[in-house]
Structure formats: C-alpha cells, structure tokens
Amino acid sequence: QVQVVESGGGLVHPGGSVRLSCAASGFTFSEYAIRWWRQYPGKEREMVAAVDVVPTNTYYPDSVKGRFTASRDNAKKMAYLQMNNLEPSDTAVYYCKVGGYWGQGTQVTVSS
Question: What's the rounded Cα separation, in Å, for the pair 88 and 108?
Fold first, then answer.
C-alpha cells in the first residue's frame, strides 16, 4: 500500500523555524524525485522545493531560496523540508510529493 504522510506543521512565530517530515512507504522511495508544494486557500499549489534522485540536486524558487532546505534520507524513506526565517506569507498547507504520490498535507501557520 502506497503511503506518503507529512508531519511537523503547526503554529510558528515570524522569524521562526519548522521542519516538515515526509514518510513514504509501499514503493521504492530512492527511485523518485521529491517535490514540496504549498497551497494558499483558493489558489493553485506552487512548488517550493525539489530534491532529485541525486540528493545534492535541489531547486528552490526565489520566494524561498536561502530560507528553505529540502533533503532526503533514502535509508529511512524520509524527506524533510527545513524552513527558516518564516514569514506570514509562508502560511499555507504544505504537501510532499514523491514521484507521483501525494501526501495529505500539513498546515503551517506563521503568526505572532
């Protein structure tokens, strides 16, 4: 059974940090690229980070570059998104996508 499950969201103050985790099972995790997306209410999802099959190959849009870091641990079948210096505009539901498999999303709220 294929499963992709995010965790680690919550309420954080502006300037704070949070690390999202993504646990995968039921498929060969190491063979797939990982994409992190976020979605604002009423908007389409936007990609905020990507980690290739080769873990050192990463991509970030300008909106999060220097603040977000994506990584993966193939042995544990885990992906991570470290988010630092968070801003209220980072408030969204964050999704992990491994290959074509989506997680259910986790809410991150940045507010004082």
Answer: 10
Quote the pLDDT of residue 2: 93
Kindly give, in sequence order, each residue whose CB lies less than 8 Å from that of residue 56, ignoring residues fewer than 6 positions away: none
- Taking alpha carbons only, the member of 8, 5, 56 closest to residue 29 is 5
Per DSSP, what are the bridge partners of residue 110?
Answer: 12
Going by the DSSP 8-state scheme, the letter that residue 66 receives in this structure is: T
| Calpha distance 57→112 (Å, rounded) | 34
Q: What does the alpha-carbon distance between residue 16 and residue 87 come to, in Å, rounded to a whole number?
A: 8
Cα angle, residue 102 at apex, residues 99 and 107 outer, rounded to 5°: 135
Distance from CA of residue 42 to its chain's centroid? 19
pLDDT one-digit tens code per residue, 67-106:
999 999 999 999 999 999 999 999 999 999 999 999 999 9
pLDDT at 75: 95
Distances (CA, A) of 35 to 16, 70, 74, 95: 22, 9, 15, 8
The sign of the torsion formed by the CA atoms of 62, 87, 90, 25 equals positive
